[in-house]
Structure formats: structure tokens, C-alpha cells
Amino acid sequence: MSLFIIYIVCIGLALLLNKADLSQAILGVAYYVPIVFCLFLGLTGVTEGGRCSLFGSCIATPVGWLFIALFWFIIVWLLAWVLSVFMRNIKEARSIQ
Q1: Percentage, residues of the chain above pLDDT 90
Q2: Of 17 and 92, which is predicted with more confidence?
Q3: Nearest in space to 37 (alpha carbons), one of 12, 74, 10, 11
Q4: How far apart are CA 24 and CA 74, in angstroms?
Q5: Ranges of H-type helices in the chain
Q6: Which of 11, 19, 46, 92 could form a cystine bridge with 64, CB 3.0-4.6 A?
Q7: 63: left (phi > 0), else alpha (psi -120 to 50), else beta?
Q8: What sign does the dihedral 68-69-74-77 (CA atoms) show?
Q9: How far apart are CA 91 and CA 46, in angstroms?
């Protein structure tokens, strides 16, 4: 978990100091967050060597790429579900009035 916080702080500092492009930061987070989350849960076989360092040596295995795709699919699905519930509640509130 501390590695995840370090990544977020480094990306934030890079963006504040205009040392990184926003697209590079988003791609970095999109790649590292699921891997760090998986390592935090104790799942093995996601990275080569079974660890991740600060210097970007987090090379995903085929299982890791599958986990990355599944992780972001679930995140997008949950966001769409929450948005649909929110919009349904707004629609029901308008029909009551």
C-alpha cells in the first residue's frame, strides 16, 4: 500500500512541477494501480519476479495483463452502475413532482 501512495505522490509532484504530461501520468497509474493492488492482496504470478519496485521494474506476466484488464473492466462497470442508479433516482424524483 505504501508503494501505491508513493506513486500517487510522485505523479502529483511531477504534474505540479510540469515535469510530466497528464497522459503519461494517467497511463502510469492505469498500469501500476492494479498490479500494486494485486500484490497488496498477496496474489502471486502477476509480475515477473513477484515484486514491484519504484523504478518501474513491474513487468506484468500474461496473468498480470489479464488482471489489469479485468480490474479496469470491473471499475468501469461499477461506475456505470452507480451512474445509472443515480440517474434513475433523479428521474423518479422528477416524476413524483
Answers
A1: 1
A2: 92
A3: 74
A4: 23
A5: 2-16, 22-41, 62-96
A6: 46
A7: alpha
A8: positive
A9: 43
CB 34 within 8 A of CB 72: yes
Kindly compute the dihedral angle of the four CA atoms of residues 26, 30, 35, 37, in this order, to the nearest 10 degrees.
90
d(CA 5, CA 97): 46
What is the mean pLDDT of the segment spanning 48-55?
66
Angle at 56 between CA 52 and CA 11, to 5 degrees: 105
Question: In the numeric block, which cell numbers belong to residue 49?
Answer: 519476479
In whole angstroms, what is the distance from residue 70 CA to residue 78 CA? 12
Among residues 40, 46, 58, which one has the least CA distance to residue 2?
A: 40
Residue 50 exposure: Cα atoms within 13 Å on the Cβ side: 5
